[in-house]
Design brief:
Shape of chain B: flat
Helix content of chain A: 25-40%
Strand content of chain A: 15-25%
Number of strands of chain B: 0
Oligomer: heterodimer
Strand content of chain B: under 5%
Number of domains of chain B: 1
Structural class of chain B: mainly alpha
CATH topology of chain B: MetI-like fold
CATH superfamily of chain B: MetI-like
Number of strands of chain A: 16
Distance between the termini of chain B: 12 Å
Helix content of chain B: over 70%
Number of helices of chain B: 14
Chain lengths: 524, 306
C-alpha cells in the first residue's frame, strides 16, 4: 500500500518534472535532508563487511544501512522479513530452502544482484556460525536467474532463523562477488559496496561514515544523507542533541536521562535490550556453597530487581522472570521474582549457613561495575559477603571461554547478553557443555540431552515443549538467576518526524534505529 | 663536534630500542587480542587461523624482530581493527593533532609566559598570588571536567561553538583551550621560577646599577635568558599534546592521534598501539636530539661534558 502510494507520487513528480533521471531513481528522488547519528563507541572496519560478522549485535547498525540480506529481522519480524528475496520457502522436511530474488535489484555500483552473488556470499561467509552452515549444507543450486536453493545434508530446522537474524550471523547478507574479489576483504572494508538503502560516499576510519540514499533501492528512502559519527563521550552526545548537531544519539548515560527528558522536542527512546543474570561458576563442586539449590535460591531472593532497574536504567528496563529475552523464539514467560530477605535468610539457615558465607568475587560484565556494587550491597543484607572483581572486557571474555578453571573458589558472574532469533542460541552459548561462553562451567547432563533431542527434532510442537522444559529446569533450579532486562536509552532530536519513539526504533530485536530508509525528517 | 653528534645519535637509537621493547611487551601483557577479533562461537581452529593470519602464533622474539624490521622499512604493521596500515592511519590523523597541539601550545605560551613574567617581576604581591592561584587551578582541574564545562557554556548555553568533531577554526577553540590550560599552568610556573633565578643574578644587578630602566632590564636581559628552559619545555609539551591528548580528543570527538591510541588500547590493537607509541617516541627523541645539538653549537662546554 505504502509502496503503491509512493509509486503514484513518484509518477506524478515524473510527469511534472519530465526528467529522465527520476525514472531511474524511485527511491532517492523523494529523499531529502540530512540525518546525523552520534554513535557511542569507535567504529571497527569489520562491521562494514557481512562476510566477517562477529556474532554480536553491533554490526547490524551498519549492515542495515549499507547492505541487505535475503531475509532479515525487521520491525516485529524476528527473522523472516522479506528483503532482497521477495519470497522464500523451507521444504517440509527442512532439507532445502528456496529464495526468489526481487526483480531489478542492484548493488550500489550498478551491478545487478544475482543468485551467483548470493551463492558466493553464502559459500565464502566466514563469520559467526559459519561452521554450522558449512557443516549442514550439501550444495547451493542456482535454479534460474532469480531463484536459488540451499540443499542440506540433514533437516536444518533452524536454517531460516539463523540465516535471517542479522545480529547472530550474516551468510544471507549479499555482497557483490566481482567487486569483493577485485578489492579483497580488506579493501572491501574500506569501500564497501552493498545493496542496502544507503551507499557509502565517505569513510574516515574510526571517525565518520557519510552515506547517501541509494536511488535504486527497492523501497523508498526518506532521508538523502545519513551520517554516523563516533562520539565516545556520553555528555558530548547529549550536548550535540541539545545543539541540533545530532538527530539521534545512542546510549544516554543514566545520570543525564532526566536532563534529556526535559529538552524541548527531544524524545527519549528507552529500548529494552539485553538480559542480565547471575551465574555460579564451579557450583557443581561439593565444597561450593552454591551447590545447594537453597543457597542459589537465597541469592535470587536477595536481589532487589526493581531497585537495580531504577538505579541502572532509570526505571526504563524491565524486571523479568527469565534470563532469556522474551523477544526470541520459544522464550518462556516467567513471573517476576519478588525480593524476600527473610525467606532468603531462612533458606541460608536451612542450608547450614546461619551466618552467611563469603563469596570470593562478584565479577560484573565490564564495564558495568556499578551493577556489581549494587548486587554486593543487596547480598550483604542476607549475610552473603562479597568483593567485586573488575576486569578489562577482553580479559573477561577470555576467562569465560577458559572454563571453570578460570573461576576458582566461590564466585558469581553478573553477566548481560543480547541474542536475537531463538532461545536455543542463548542455551547453546551460555549453558550447553562446551558452549562458546559456557564451556564446562554448567554442564548439566540431563538438560544437554534434552537440547540434543531438541536439535534433532523437526517437529515444531515437540521443539517448543522441549525448549520450555529446559528453560523451566534452569529457572526452577536457579542454575542461572535472572535479574533484569536493561534499557539501551537513546534519544531522538526535534528534526526527526516521530509521534513516538517506536517510530524510529521499530525493530524489536535491536537497540538501533533501523530500518534506516523509513526514518523521516519533519518539513522545514 | 661530530663525535658528540654520533654519541647523541647512538643514545637516541638505544632509547628508541628500549621504548619499542617496552611497548611491545606491555601490549602483550594485556592478553590475547584474538578473543576480541574472533566472532562469538569461534572454534579453536578459527582462533588458530586468526593467530596465524596476524602472525601472533610466532614467538615473542620473532614478532619483535619483525616489528623492528617494519620500523626500519617505514612500516608500522597493519591495524587489527581498521585493516589499514598503521602508518596510513597515523598520517591521516596527524594533521588534526598537529593543529590541536600547535594551537594549544600557542595558548599555553600566550597565557603562561606573560603571567609567569608578571608573577616574577611582582613577586610576593597580589599579582603573584593570583598567578600562583591560576597555576594551581590549571594543574589541578582535570582536562575532562574542563572540556565538559566548556561544552556546556560555549556550545549549549551560549551556542557560539560546535560541541565536537573537526572542521573549521571554531572546532579547534574548545579542545585547544582545554588542552592548553594545563600546560599554560606549567609554563607559568617554569617562567616564574626561571625569571626569579635570572633576576637575582649578578649581571642583572649590574644592569640595574648602570641605571638601565626596569623595562629594558627585564625585556632585554632577563627575559631572553629565562626563556631558554621555557621554550625547551614548550617543544616537549607540544609533542606530548600532539601524541597523547587522549582524554581531550575523546571528550571532543577530535579525530587525532590521541583518540587513535585510545581506540587501539580499547580494542587491543597491538600494531596500532605500538605504532603510535613508537612514532611519539621518534618525535620526542628527535626533538631532544635537535635541541642537544643546537645547545652544543651555542655552548661548546656542553660538547665536553660526557
Amino acid at each position: 500500500m505504502r509502496r503503491s502510494r509512493f509509486v503514484a507520487a513518484a509518477l506524478m513528480l515524473i510527469a511534472l518534472a519530465s526528467t529522465a533521471a527520476s525514472l531511474s531513481s524511485p527511491a532517492g528522488a523523494a529523499a531529502r535532508g540530512k540525518l546525523v547519528l552520534a554513535w557511542h563507541a569507535g567504529f571497527a572496519s569489520r562491521w562494514l563487511d557481512p562476510q566477517e560478522h562477529d556474532g554480536t549485535a553491533t554490526p547490524d547498525n551498519f549492515f542495515t544501512a549499507i547492505h541487505d540480506g535475503l531475509i532479515k529481522n525487521q520491525g516485529t519480524a524476528l527473522f523472516d522479513h522479506p528483503a532482497l528475496a521477495e519470497k522464500f520457502t523451507v521444504a517440509p522436511d527442512a532439507k532445502s530452502a528456496t529464495f526468489t530474488l526481487r526483480k531489478g535489484i542492484k548493488f550500489h555500483n550498478g551491478e545487478p544482484v544475482t543468485p551467483q552473488d548470493v551463492k558466493f556470499s553464502y559459500e565464502s561467509y566466514r563469520g559467526a556460525k559459519a561452521d554450522v552452515f558449512k557443516k549442514k549444507t550439501e550444495r547451493v543450486e542456482l535454479v534460474d536467474d532469480r531463484t536459488i536453493r540451499f540443499h542440506f545434508k540433514e533437516p536444518f530446522l533452524d536454517f531460516a532463523i539463523l540465516f535471517g537474524t542479522a545480529n547472530v550471523a550474516a551468510p544471507g547478507w549479499v555482497v557483490p562477488e566481482k567487486y569483493y574479489k577485485q578489492v579483497g576483504a580488506d579493501g572491501f572494508k574500506q569501500k564497501p559496496v552493498g545493496a542496502g538503502p544507503y551507499k557509502l560516499v565517505r569513510h574516515e576510519p574510526g571517525v565518520k561514515l557519510e552515506m547517501e540514499a541509494f536511488d535504486a533501492y527497492y523501497r523508498p528512502v526518506n532521508v538523502k544523507q545519513l551520517v554516523m559519527t563516533s562520539v565516545p563521550e556520553g555528555a558530548t552526545r547529549v550536548a550535540m542533541l541539545e545543539r541540533g548537531e545530532a538527530d539521534i544519539i545512542y546510549s544516554v548515560p543514566g545520570e543525564l536521562v532526566s536532563r534529556v527528558q526535559k529538552l524541548p522536542g527531544v524524545t527519549l527512546a528507552p529500548v529494552l535490550s539485553g538480559s542480565w543474570f547471575l551465574e555460579f561458576p564451579g557450583f557443581q563442586d561439593p565444597k561450593n556453597p552454591f551447590r545447594d539449590k537453597r543457597v542459589r535460591e537465597a541469592v535470587s531472593l536477595a536481589v532487589d530487581r526493581r531497585a537495580m532497574n531504577q538505579a541502572e536504567s532509570a526505571g526504563f528496563g524491565k524486571v523479568s522472570g527469565n534470563w532469556i529475552n522474551n523477544d526470541v523464539q520459544y522464550a518462556l514467560e516467567w513471573p517476576e521474582i519478588e525480593r524476600n530477605v527473610e525467606r532468603a535468610k531462612q533458606l541460608l539457615r536451612e542450608a547450614g549457613y546461619p551466618n552467611g558465607f563469603d563469596v570470593d568475587w562478584v565479577t560484573p560484565l565490564p564495564a558495568w561495575y556499578s551493577r556489581g556494587e549494587r548486587l554486593i550491597g543487596q547480598l550483604r543484607e542476607v549475610g552473603i559477603r562479597a568483593r567485586m572483581q573488575t576486569m578489562e572486557r577482553g580479559v573477561f571474555f577470555q576467562r569465560l571461554q577458559g572454563g571453570v578453571k578460570e573461576w576458582p573458589g566461590v564466585q558469581i558472574i553478573f553477566h548481560g547478553i543480547r541474542i536475537a532469533g531463538s532461545w536455543s542460541f542463548w542455551y547453546e552459548a551460555h549453558v550447553k557443555c562446551g558452549g562458546f561462553n559456557s564451556r564446562d562451567r554448567l554442564c548439566i547432563k540431563e538438560l544437554d540431552a534434552k537440547f540434543e533431542q531438541y536439535e534433532r527434532s523437526i517437529n515444531p510442537a515437540e521443539r517448543k515443549k522441549l525448549a520450555e522444559e529446559i528453560q523451566r529446569a534452569i529457572l526452577e533450579n536457579h542454575y542461572l538467576v535472572p535479574v533484569f532486562r536493561h534499557a539501551f536509552v537513546n534519544a531522538i532530536g526535534p528534526r526527526v518526524a516521530a509521534h513516538k519513539w517506536q517510530d524510529v526504533f521499530p525493530t524489536i530485536t535491536t537497540g538501533y534505529a533501523y530500518p534506516w530508509e523509513d526514518i523521516k525528517l519533519k518539513e522545514q | 663536534m661530530w663525535q658528540f653528534i654520533v654519541r647523541r645519535l647512538l643514545y637516541s637509537i638505544v632509547t628508541l630500542l628500549i621504548l619499542s621493547a617496552t611497548i611491545f611487551v606491555i601490549v602483550r601483557l594485556t592478553g590475547d587480542p584474538v578473543s576480541l577479533l574472533a566472532e562469538a562461537g569461534a572454534r579453536p581452529e578459527d582462533l588458530e587461523r586468526i593467530h596465524r593470519q596476524w602472525g601472533l602464533d610466532r614467538s615473542w622474539p620473532v614478532q619483535y624482530v619483525s616489528f623492528l624490521q617494519n620500523i626500519v622499512t617505514g612500516e608500522l604493521g597493519k591495524s587489527f581493527n581498521y585493516r589499514l596500515p598503521v602508518s596510513e592511519l597515523y598520517f591521516q590523523r596527524l594533521p588534526n593533532s598537529l593543529t590541536l597541539g600547535l594551537v594549544a601550545t600557542l595558548i599555553s605560551i600566550l597565557v603562561g609566559v606573560p603571567a609567569g613574567i608578571i608573577s616574577a617581576v611582582k613577586v610576593n604581591t597580589w599579582w603573584d598570588t593570583i598567578a600562583k592561584g591560576v597555576a594551581l587551578l590549571g594543574l589541578s582541574i582535570p582536562g575532562f571536567w574542563l572540556g565538559l564545562v566548556l561544552i556546556l557554556v560555549f556550545s549549549v548555553w551560549l551556542r557560539w561553538l560546535p560541541t565536537s568533531g573537526a572542521g573549521d577554526w571554531r572546532h579547534v577553540v574548545m579542545p585547544s583551550l582545554a588542552l592548553g590550560w594545563y600546560f599554560a599552568a606549567s609554563m607559568l610556573r617554569l617562567t616564574r621560577s626561571s625569571m626569579l633565578e635570572v633576576l637575582g643574578s649578578e649581571y642583572i644587578k649590574l644592569a640595574r646599577l648602570k641605571g638601565l630602566p626596569d623595562v629594558v632590564v627585564i625585556a632585554m636581559h632577563a627575559f631572553k635568558n629565562a626563556l631558554i628552559p621555557v621554550f625547551t619545555l614548550a617543544g616537549v609539551n607540544m609533542v606530548v599534546m600532539v601524541n597523547a591528548a587522549v582524554i581531550i580528543e575523546v571528550i571532543f570527538a577530535w579525530p587525532g592521534i590521541g583518540r587513535l591510541l585510545y581506540e587501539g588500547i580499547f580494542n587491543r590493537d597491538f600494531p596500532l598501539v605500538q605504532g603510535v607509541v613508537v612514532m611519539a617516541g621518534f618525535m620526542i627523541v628527535g626533538i631532544n636530539l635537535i635541541v642537544d645539538i643546537l645547545y652544543a653549537f651555542i655552548d661548546p662546554r656542553i660538547r665536553l661534558t660526557r
